[in-house]
Amino acid sequence: MSALAAPPLPAAPPFAEALAEMAAPLILLDTGGTVSFANARAAALLACAAPAGLSLGALLAAGGVAEPEAEPVLAALRAARTLSAPLTLAGDRRVDAALTPLSVGGFALTFEDVTERIRGAALARQEPLTGLCNRVGLHDHLHAALAEAARTGAPLAVLMLDLDRFKAVNDTLGHPVGDALLRKVAERLHKATRRGDVVARLGGDEFAILQAGAEQPQAAETLARRLVDLVGRTYVVEGHMLNVGVSVGIAIAPADGQDADDLLKHADLALYRAKAEGRATYRFFEPAMNVQMQARRSLEIDLRRALALRQFTLAFQPQIRLETGEVVGFEALLRWTHPERGPVSPALFIPLAEEIGVIVGIGEWALRAACREAAGWAQPASVAVNLSPVQFRGGKLVETVMNVLAQTGLDPARLELEITEGALLENTDDVLAVLNGLRALGVKISMDDFGTGYSSLSYLQKFPFDKIKIDQSFVRGMEGNAECGAIVRAIARLGASLGMRTTAEGVETTSQLDAIRAEGCTEVQGYLTGRPMPAAQAAALLSESPAADIRVLRNTP
C-alpha cells in the first residue's frame, strides 16, 4: 500500500454494543411486552440484574413501581401506542418513562431520572427553618385547590395565622430561642391539621393553612378554635417557660374570593380584625372589612402627610393642686385637624401612628412645641407630654429630649414625661435604662393610667416615679362603686408613702372632686376644673393670677 494512502477505518461496533453504551436507560420489548434487551443503566436504575426475559409488568414491579402507576404503561403497551408517564421507583426515585412503538415491531422504553430536579423544586417551595411549605409553595397548592374546587363546586378555606407576643420572646431571649419556638409551633400546627391540609410559614411569625375537602365554614371554625387553644399552651424551650398566643383570620372560597390573591388578602383582613379585637381569637372575613381597610389606608396616607402640612396642634389641660387650688401645670394633648375630615379623634389616629411608626416624628414635634410654649409662660408651671412605647425603641429618646430642652431653653424640672405601662411591657430593662437617663437630665417622670395594668405595682418598685396618675375609669366609678373608691384611696395612700404625687384624671362632677379630695389625692385634672384649651388661652390663664382658683376654672369654656 502506498505511503500516501489513508489508514483503514475501524470496524463499526455491533448494534447491541452501541445500545449498551447509551447514557440513557433503555429497554427493548418484543411485541408481547417481554424484555429482549436492557442496557446497564436501565438494569441499575430498576435494580434488576437480569431483565431479559421478564415481562414489562414484572420488570416494573421489580423496580418498585406500584401497580396503579404501572397500569397506564401496560395499557399503552397493549394498545401499541406512545405514552409518557411519571413513575416512582424504589428508594423514592422519580423517573419520566417514555414508551414508543417501533416500526420494525416491538417497543422502546426509555427513562429520565428526575429525582434531583423534583427534590430541588420541592426545596424551593419549602421553608428551611420549620420544613413547612413556603409562600411560593402555598400559592401553588392554592391555585391547584381552587382549580379543583371550581370543577367540583366544593368550598375550601384559607386560615392566616399570626403569633401574639412572639416579638417579646425574640427580643428578650434572642433569635435562637425564637427559632426553636417557631419550630415547636410548626409541630403543633401539624398535629392540629388533617393529612391533606397544607401548612405554610410565610415568614417571621406568620403562618397559613389551606383546608380543602371539608364541610365549610364549620371545618374552618373547628380548626381555628383548636389552633387558638393548642398554640396558646405553654412551651418549654431551652429551659424557658414561654407563652404565646395566635390570632386567626379565615376566608372561604368561592364566597370570599375565587383566585389565590383575593383569598389570601381577605384572610389577612380577617386576621387584622382578630388582632384588633383582642388577639388569641379568630374572625371570618366580611365584605365590610374591605371598606374599612380602604378607609384605614386613606387615613394612613393622610396621617403620613399631616406633620409636613402642619395639621397638628396642641391643647393644654390644667392640672390643679387640690390643697391650694392653683394651676401647677398643664398636660399637652395632641390634636389633628384635617382640612376635609375635620378634627380626627386621638383614639383613632394615635394607635395608627404607633402602628406605622410615624409617632416618633409626631412625638418629637409635640415635645418641642410643648416645651417652647411652656418656656414663655409667666408662671413656672410644669408641662406634661405623653410618650409612646414606640419612642423608646431605637435608643435616641434621651438625646432627643436633651436637644429639645437645649433648643427651647425650658428648665428640665418643668418638663414631665408621662408613660403608660405599655412602654414597660416590651423590654422592661431597656426602658428603665432610658427612664434613668431622662431622670439624669432633671425631668420628671409620671406613670399614666395607673391601676389598669397588672404589673403596675412591680414597676413602682423598679423605678421611683415622680407622679402616678389615677385612671379616669376609677374616678368616674367612685360615685356608684365602692370598689373604685377603695382603689383610689389605696393608690393615694401608696403615692403618699412613696413620696409620689397623685393626680386624679377625668374629674367631671363636684361629687367626684369632693371624693378624691377626701381620699387624699394631691392633684386633679378633668373637665370640671379645666377643659383642654389652646396654647394662647393657657398662657393667658397663668398671666391672670399667680394662683388660679378651681371655681374659676370650672367655668372655662
Description:
- It is a single chain.
- With 557 residues, this protein is α/β, with parallel strands linked by helices.
- The chain contains 22 helices and 21 strands.
- The strands form 4 sheets. Strands 13-14-16-17-18-19-20-21 form an 8-stranded mixed β-barrel, surrounded by 4 helices. A 5-stranded antiparallel sheet has the order 2-1-5-4-3, sandwiched between helices. It has a 5-stranded mixed sheet with strand order 7-8-6-11-12, with helices on both faces.
- Strand 20, helix 20 (510-519) and strand 21 (523-525) form a beta-alpha-beta unit.
- Helix 8 packs antiparallel against helix 9.
- The radius of gyration is 37 Å and the shape is elongated.
- The N and C termini lie far apart (128 Å).
Defining key terms:
557 residues, disordered N terminus, 22 helices, alpha/beta
Describe the global form: elongated
Low-confidence stretches: 1-13, 550-557
Strand content: 15-25%
What percent of residues adopt helix (DSSP H or I)?
40-55%
Structural class: alpha/beta
Radius of gyration computed on alpha carbons: 37 Å
Q: How many strands? A: 21
Q: Count of helices?
A: 22
Please report the distance between the alpha carbons of the first and last residues.
128 Å
Please, what is the average pLDDT?
Answer: 85
Biggest sheet descriptor: 8 strands, mixed, barrel
Q: What topology, given as strand order, has the largest sheet?
A: 13-14-16-17-18-19-20-21
Layout: helices, strands, pairs:
Layout lengths: L14 H6 L5 E4 L5 E4 L1 H6 L10 H7 L4 H13 L3 E7 L3 E9 L5 E7 L1 H10 L10 H18 L3 E9 L1 H8 L1 H18 L5 E6 L2 E7 L5 H14 L3 E3 L2 E3 L2 E9 L6 H17 L5 E3 L2 H20 L5 E10 L5 E12 L3 E3 L1 H11 L2 H17 L6 E5 L10 H12 L6 E5 L1 H6 L1 H14 L2 E7 L5 H7 L4 E4 L1 H6 L4 H17 L2 E5 L4 H10 L3 E3 L9 H10 L5 H5 L3
Parallel strand pairs: 11-12, 14-16, 16-17, 17-18, 18-19, 19-20, 20-21
Antiparallel strand pairs: 1-2, 1-5, 3-4, 4-5, 6-8, 6-11, 7-8, 9-10, 13-14, 13-21, 14-15
Helix pairs in contact: 3-4, 7-8, 8-9, 11-12, 13-14, 14-16
